[in-house]
Amino acid sequence: MSTRRLIIAALLCGVAILVAGTILLVSLSTNDVKDRVDRVPVPTTRG
After folding, report:
1. Mean of the pLDDT values across residues 8-21?
2. Average per-residue pLDDT for the chain
3. Residue 29: what are its φ and ψ, rounded to 5°?
4. How far, CA to CA in Å, does 5 sit from each of 10, 11, 13, 35?
5. CA distance linking residue 40 with residue 37, whole number of Å
6. Average pLDDT in the 22-40 region?
7. Is the model's pTM score more than 0.85?
8. What's the angle, vertex CA 25, arms to CA 17 and CA 40, rounded to 5?
9. Which of 7-44 are b and which e, b meaning 16 or more Cβ less than 10 Å from the residue's Cβ?
10. Which residue has the higher pLDDT, 37 or 11?
């Protein structure tokens, strides 16, 4: 029983780490895109 509990705990921890990693990657990617868009000057006067 202890081995099963350890395996289940390890699986749950792995899933939690994967979910947290994906959320962090998505948030970081969106932040990078926003920063790049803010940094790039919009050529509204030129045309």
Report:
1. 96
2. 83
3. -65, -45
4. 8, 10, 12, 44
5. 5
6. 79
7. no
8. 170
9. eeeeeeeeeeeeeeeeeeeeeeeeeeeeeeeeeeeeee
10. 11
Half-sphere exposure (Cβ direction) of 44: Cα atoms closer than 13 Å:
3
Query: Which token pair is 6?
Result: 């350890």
The rounded distance, in Å, linking the Cα atoms of 10 and 16 is: 10
Mean predicted confidence (pLDDT) in 14-43: 82
Q: DSSP character for 42?
A: P
Distance, CA of 9 to CA of 4 (rounded, Å) = 8
Copy the structure tokens of residue 37: 């868009």
Tell me: pLDDT of 10 over 70.
yes
**How many whole angstroms separate alpha carbon 13 and alpha carbon 25?**
18
